[in-house]
Write a structure and sequence with these properties.
By secondary structure, the protein is mainly α. About 35% of the residues lie in helices and about 0% in strands. It has a domain at about 15-40. The structure holds zinc ion (ZN).
Amino acid sequence: MLENVIEFFRNLPKKKCDKCGEPIEEQHECYGNHCDKCNTL
Ligand SMILES: [Zn+2]
């Protein structure tokens, strides 16, 4: 059962930054659509 959950998250498409197109590491739920660099600008 646990493996199914892991597979599910593995198959999710990665978020990309709206500004530069860099893949966003989703560590926070409320991250928005910008990567670290564009977020701190
Ligand atoms: Zn960016």
